[in-house]
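[audit] Reproducing an earlier prediction to check determinism. Same input, same settings, fresh worker. If the tokens differ from the archived copy the diff job will pick it up downstream; this log only records the rerun itself.
[audit] input (206 residues):
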Amino acid sequence: MTLQEILAAENRNTDKIYLHLEGIFWKAYERSAFAFIHRISRYKASKRFVKYLDAEVVSVGFPDASRAKVLGDRPLETEKADMLVLGTGTIDAEEYGRWKEAIPLVVSKPAGMPSPVFGTLYGGVPRQMVIPVPDAESVPRRVPAAPLSSRSSEAGSAGSYPAAASETSVGEAVLRDLRNFSVENATPLECLLFVSSLKKQLNGNI
């Protein structure tokens, strides 16, 4: 679902929590985020202005790896690969409106600046760091050198040692996750966890 479709569904939502899988995170928006925080877990919500929708959007999320811990044994009304639906009590529209209004708006980055990926704390003051995401074409591929036995027996030949298939597939999976990850709708903590998960994937195959 697109963000526009999600928000349209949330405008009609009166008694459910919709969770959408984005990259490695489950995210709830608007009324679903309100119900999630008040009835499942006190996660911190973030509010951002989405320019192309001309709207302020509230969301909350948690890693897919923490799904069992966060949701526990709560029954699911719907379970799909990219969406979960949980039943909840009636969502009070007025209370939700006051809650959303009280959440501070996260100011967008200036035009032309790289997307902020995560923040660290120095003396209790948030510090923003920027990590550029390379295109697939600009990422150098590491080609393993041919074994010594092959070099001696095939000196002068044009043959080369084939790259490991697992390394190539993992690299492609990492690039796919990078492209699908919605940085503009993620919190600094979500970005940090996302980068950490990618590093673990790469370290396990390099």
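[audit] rerun output stored. Observation attached for the diff report: Residues 86 and 141 are 43 Å apart (CA to CA).
[audit] end
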